[in-house]
Design a protein that fits this description.
266 residues, two-stranded antiparallel ribbon, Thiolase-like, 14% strand
């Protein structure tokens, strides 16, 4: 293979991706979407709701990258990146930073801001290093991280008021919903259909800052920051109708994932 003025031999997982111009994460994650559609009947229109919901919320976020309205037609008319993922299924690289002050619980009460507490955390890594070689492409390792997280708390998925879930690609958000137990396995597409349930005034407000799809890619910290904003009631125009007290936050996809519950309850 040639490149950079020379040639090289691809080895390991790259021997199956670079020669076919499949080095982008979109190529790997598209397989998750294909598998979910084949196994559970998930549709393109259902995937679209993740992107459309993100854009609606980003329109109310002054720090978001993309704030212009997006319709289903806009989504469907966008160019295909890797079937079935279109342009608006893919997140927005950007420059940005997020900072947190972490302290002991008893000290947090004296801080200027309303304390947000870590209720439970779970992390997981398994399977092969390449994200397209999971044993089950419809089950990200987030399911293991979530299982660990739930084992460390008396709370249940029914207690979650707000979900800030990784959306590097739209299908990952659906898989995180299932991994977290926020909807049954295979039913995330049906859950988001129409967008009402995941809207700011829905039963499970989702990615209220616009997620990585519209607000910009800050990885896990962007979602954790928004969870803190919402739990404190500081969301301004995008604040959910009922100030939440328990938020589920997820980061990563494929074979490396982290999940946490944060709350304003002591």
């Amino acid at each position: 293979m040639g490149g950079g003025g020379g040639s090289f031999r691809a080895s390991g997982a790259q021997q199956w991706t670079l020669p076919f111009n499949a080095a982008s994460a979109s190529c790997w994650i598209a397989l998750y979407a294909q598998a979910h559609m084949h196994r559970y009947g998930t549709t393109t229109e259902q995937l679209a709701q993740i992107a459309i919901n993100a854009r609606k919320n980003a329109a109310l976020n002054p720090n978001a990258i993309y704030r212009d309205p997006m319709s289903l037609d806009d989504y469907m008319d966008a160019r295909m990146i890797t079937t079935p993922l279109r342009l608006f299924d893919c997140d927005v690289p950007c420059d940005g930073a997020t900072a947190f002050i972490i302290s002991r619980r008893e000290q947090a009460k004296d801080m200027k801001q309303t304390p947000v507490y870590f209720e439970a955390i779970g992390t997981a890594m398994r399977d092969r290093p390449s994200w397209d070689q999971l044993d089950d492409l419809t089950r990200i390792v987030g399911a293991d991280a979530a299982e660990q997280m739930w084992s460390r708390t008396s709370l249940t998925p029914a207690d979650v008021d707000l979900a800030e879930l990784y959306d590097g690609f739209s299908i990952l958000t659906l898989l995180w919903m299932e991994a977290m137990g926020l909807c049954p396995v295979g039913e995330s597409g049906a859950f988001v259909e129409g967008g009402e349930r995941i809207a700011r005034d829905g039963v499970l407000p989702l990615n209220t800052h616009g997620g990585q799809l519209s607000a910009g890619r800050l990885h896990g910290y962007g979602f954790l920051h928004e969870a803190c904003v919402q739990l404190r009631g500081q969301g301004g125009e995008r604040q959910v109708a009922k100030i939440p007290s328990i938020a589920a936050v997820a980061a990563g996809g494929g074979n490396t994932c982290g999940a946490m519950l944060v709350t304003t309850n002591e």
